[in-house]
Structures are given as structure tokens and as C-alpha cells.
Design a protein that fits this description.
Elements lengths: L1 H34 L1 H8 E9 L6 E2 L5 E13 L10 H8 L3 H8 L14 E7 L1 H8 L8 E10 L6 H4 L2 E3 L2 H6 L9 E3 L2 H5 L1 H5 L3 E8 L4 E4 L14 E4 L3 H10 L5 E7 L4 E8 L13 H10 L21 H11 L13 E4 L2 E4 L9 H6 L3 H12 L7 H14 L21 H7 L9 H4 L13 H12 L3 E2 L5 E5 L13 E2 L7 H13 L14 E7 L7 E8 L6 E7 L9 H14 L7 H9 L2 H4 L2
Parallel strand pairs: 2-10
Antiparallel strand pairs: 1-8, 2-3, 3-4, 3-5, 6-7, 8-9, 10-16, 11-12, 11-20, 13-14, 15-17, 18-19, 19-20
Helix pairs in contact: 1-2, 10-20, 12-14
Amino acid sequence: MATKDMYKDRSRIIQGVFILAAAFLVLSALNIQVIDPEYRERAQATTVNKYTLYPSRGLIYDRNGKLLVINNAIYDLKVTYKQLDPAMDTMHLCRILDIDRKTFEKNVKPNFRSARYSKSVPFVFMSKISAQTCAALQEVLYKFPGFSLQLRNVRGYPHQNAAHVLGYLSEVNSKQIEASDGKYQGGDYIGSTGLESYYEEELRGRKGTKFILKDNLGRNVGPFKGGAQDSAAVSGLDLISSLDIDLQAYGESLLKNKTGSIVAIEPSTGEILSMVSAPTYDPNLLTINRDRGKAFNYLLQDSLKPFLDRSIMAEYPPGSIFKTLVALAGMEEGTMRANTGHACSGGYNYNGTIRGCHNHVAPYNVGIALEHSCNTYFFQEFRKIVDQNGFYNPEPGLDAFVDYCYQFGLGKPLGVDLPNESDGNVPTTDYYDRLYPKDAGGWKSPTIMSVGIGQGEIQMTTLQMANLAAIIANEGYYYIPHLVRGFRPASRQIDTRFREKKTIPVNTTFYPAIAGGMRRVVRTGTASHVDIPDIEICGKTGTSQNPHGKDHSVFFAFAPRENPKIAIAVYVEHGIWGATYAAPIASLMIEKYLKGTIAENRIPMQNKMMDADLLADNP
């Protein structure tokens, strides 16, 4: 009897298990078929497509809030090869896109052996489609299974200026993709030059992702899992630059039909107000459009090298503006004083060789020597620095002088927030030992004394020249010149290195004598014709010798003398004398920035600078 009851209990347990299993299967089927829509969608869908959402790239403004770089919409037409309908009207699509059948066949069948393409993953059929073409295509896109449109943003430029500063975008290459850790993929664009390159991380933003269910005809069913796995694109930061676009445009007009550069800095902050390189080009030529390649190749092949940013990449002998540094180093080393004088009879005679000078009064102090740019004075003062340990032991003296050059930001990049800044060149003891080997007689101070007047082997960028003017204006300190003032949102701060004051190891009491001499240059000296009565400009002319043609015109300055607002350097290739082109251009730039307009009596000077065509004179 007990055995029979035991079997009945087991039977009930087995029946219960089967009932529970059947109930679970029924509920699961109910959930799949009725309750959960995801499974209904999956039943209808054959694939899930992943779409990249591209962020808006950050905008760029000038210091006064004027837009310099904006975003314009263009579209990429993508295609999924496996979803193409062989019966679709391809000629209709070709007419909308303004392409022929051969181009269609080429674009629709790329090299699928490449890792970049897959027959089941959307790839770019045609890029850079205008908004107008996109509008026409959207109305009939349903007729072309497998095709989809994707919005992209490309750069636009409300002003035709500052091309070198702003830079341009280019399509990423394979090396950049590999090094990006997934940030970039084929067809993406990246900043190649200028601010676009330097601040790529801030401007780029972050991509988003959208997953879409497709049915077996390639039609959208809806978001996958209700969009739970989607992520929104995050726009890049807006960049507020230090440029004054009106001053920049004015500088470009003054350097029209010339080669050279202008750099203007706010001395108290290191912010760059203007950075002109000539010849330049309209940045709109290099926006991402279908004509970009032709424009790029044209500029690349131009013999005047418009892609070369002469403000930070070209290295020039500074000429006589370098005499200010020689004087400061000499006073700090104790080899001269502000009232040191020298005789000058129109040239410097050494061993029967006369190096020419200008006809001027005797330079009985450093101010008069700067006023008349006396070569004799600075040949001797440079030699005194080099020879302070004896004529036959010039190395320690030169080493000391070289150190001053480094402290003033020469011989190495200043660290501006642009790529490809050049070093310039400060000739060292090792440099001259290689150039003049000891077994061939070696070198002494007379061998290298042309450095004392900014010639010989010394080379500077225009940015370094402007920064030297800023140091004198500040009486012994500077901030690294930079082009960024801030970002939006303001939570992102500019690099702290741009806020660090760099102090020069030269006694501040020596600077007034140099500034006074520079004021004499503009008031009564070699640049008196560019003086502005109500603006105290302190400047220095320079003529940079050029063995390959006409000499170069150089000028640097700051203004006003008290509480200076602008420091500037102008370099005009083949401009002959510093007073001929560089000084007038700098004076006009100063007036434009400090006053906003040019006085009527100076309009003829402005017109003369704008109309001068040095390219025709120096083809």
C-alpha cells in the first residue's frame, strides 16, 4: 500500500514539472509575440545598421566677438551594397547628383578587399553634397533602396582673412586613423594647420551613435532597443581668439603684392592682435567642397609659396633692430653704460677694412646711437662683450651673449599655439668652431662682429622680433605669445603656460635708455617720417642684407611709451630700407589699432603702402 502511494506522489511531481514548463513556454511566447515589441521588430528586421552622428565643430571668434569660422552643412550619400535594388532607376539618381553612369558604377563598387569597405556596411558613395542637391534627393530617396544621407559640417569663413592663423581641415590618412584609438575613421576630417590643428581636441567634439533596425527591403523599422544604446554627439568647444580681425584685414591690405609678415602683440598679456603672412589666400578656397583639390594644387604650386607662414616659419637676419638687445646685454655685463660714447667718422675701420656707417652726429650715448643706427657703435659694443675675457679668449664672452639671446626668446620656438614654429638661429661657440676650425686660424671677435648689427649668422622669426619689442615695452618680461583668449563654455581654461610671466635677467633700470633711444628714432631719427604727434611710438628701423637681391625692410616698435598697448614687428622682403616700407606699415597699424581710423593727412602714406607692388619689382 505504501509503495502505491509513493508512485502516486512521484506522478504528481512529474505532472507539476510538465505543467510549470508548459506555463513558462506559453508566457515566453506571449512576451515574444505580444508584450515585448523588440522581438516583433527583430522578426521583421534582417539587420541593425550603426550610424555615426557627427558633432558640430567649435566656432572661432575674434577678440571682439566677430565670427571668424562657422559651420556649413554638407551631406555624404552612403550606400549599403547588399541592399541595392537591381531594378532601380540609376539614371534618375545620376541626374540628381550630376554624375555619369561610369562614375556611378565606380562609386557603388569600391575595392571590397580593402578593410575600409564591406558589402553589408554603409560606405560613402559620394561626399560633399550641397544642401540644394540634398533637398532634391530627399524627396525621392525612397526610390533608391540602400542609399542614405548623412549630415556633415564643414568650415566657412565670413572674412577672407587670417588663413594662416585659422588653418584648414583635411581628410584623415591611414596613419592618423591608426594612431587615433578609434576617434577617427575613414572619411573624417582633422585640423591640418593653424588653430584648427593646434586646438583639434577642443574644437573636434565627440561623435554620437545611432542604431537603426532595417527590414529585408532595407527600409527603416525603427531605433534598435528604443534607442537605449544610442549616444548623442557632443559639439566642440568654441574658441575665442586674440585676433582683432579688423586690424588683421588692414595688415593684409598693407602687405598686398609683397612678401613678408606682420606680428602685433599686446605686451601686457602676450595676446597676438594680428599675424599676417604675405602672400596669403582666401580661406574659403580650402573649404571641403568639390573644387577644393584644384584650389589646393594651385596654391601648392605657386612659386610665392602662399602656404608658408612667414610670421613663424621664415627665419631672417633681423638687421639693426637687434642693436637693442646688444645694448641691453652690454649694460648687464658691465661692458657699457647708457652714456657710453664712441667716435664715428662714417665707418668702422679694422685692419684697413672699412665697414660703412651713416652720416650722423657723434653717438655720445646709446640713445643717439640707436636714433641714427650707428653701426660703428654696435660693432665696438658687441666686440667688448665677446672680448671681456681677452681678445684671444672670446668663447666665454660669446657664451654669455648667447645666453642673453636665449633669455630673450631667440634661438628656439617661443611656444606660440600654432604648429611648425621655427627656432631662428643664435650662433654659438660650437657653431663658430665648426665654421672656423682652430687648425685653420679659428675665429675672434672681428670675425663675427656683424652679429652686433643683426647680420651674419643671427636669424629670427617675425614673431621673435615682435616679442623682443614687447619685452622692451614691459621693461624686462613677457608672456608667451598666443592666439587663444578663452573657450566656451568658460570651464575650459587656456593653458597655464600662457599666463606665466617670463622675466629677463637684465636690470630693469637699463630699459628706459633703450626705449628713449627708440623714441628718438621715430621722433627725429631714421623713422621720423612715420611719427604720429599724439602717439608716442618707440621704434627701430633695420635693413637686412640680402645676398640674393634687394635688401629687406625691417621695423619693430611699441606704443604708447607709457602703458604700451601694442608691440609690433614688420618684415618686408626686398623692401630695401627699414624706413621705406616696414616703418610706415607699422606706424599705420599702430594708428589703426589705437585710434580705429587713419588721420586724413596720413592717407597718402596708406595709399602708397597699399599700392606698392614689390612682386613686380622682384618677380
